[in-house]
Amino acid sequence: LAVPEFRALYEQKRSEIELIDTILSHIETRREELGLSKADLARLIGARPESIRRLLSSQNSNPTLFTVTKLASVLGMQLDIKTTVSAKKLGPKVRKAARDLAAATA
Predict the structure, then answer these.
(1) Can you tell me the distance from the alpha carbon of 47 to that of 39, in angstroms, rounded to the nearest whole number?
(2) For residue range 23-54, what is the model confidence (pLDDT) as tens digits?
(3) For labelling, which of 18, 45, 56, 57 has a CA lying 20 to 30 Å from the CA of 100?
(4) Which H, E and C letters describe the chain, residue by residue?
(5) pLDDT at 102
(6) Cα 31 to chain centroid, rounded
(7) What's the pTM value of the predicted model, to 2 decimals?
(8) What percentage of residues in the chain have a pLDDT greater than 70?
(9) Residue 85, exposed/middle/buried by CB under 10 A (0-12, 13-18, 19+)?
């Protein structure tokens, strides 16, 4: 990935996928700790068992935030969002990225 823009996008997407994988891994561990089957978990949140099996077994899962919060809640978990980069450091970068995208789509 020699082009800096593509490398940055790749790194961003990779980070997002890793975060989703980590969240689902914590959910799966908690499900096992509680002795619930995937079908049990699905019933508890009003979902089809096959959808939860796919979600927790697939490498390509992309759950909605709504689904993640329902799963976490029924398992006695909560999501915690933390700031990882200061606004002073990140602000100029994201504003530039937004302007670049606006110019590219204009």
Answers:
(1) 9
(2) 999 999 999 999 999 999 999 999 999 999 99
(3) 18
(4) CCCHHHHHHHHHHHHHHHHHHHHHHHHHHHHHHCCCCHHHHHHHHCCCHHHHHHHHHCCCCCCCHHHHHHHHHHCCCCCCCCCCCCHHHHHHHHHHHHHHHHHHHC
(5) 87
(6) 18
(7) 0.79
(8) 98
(9) exposed
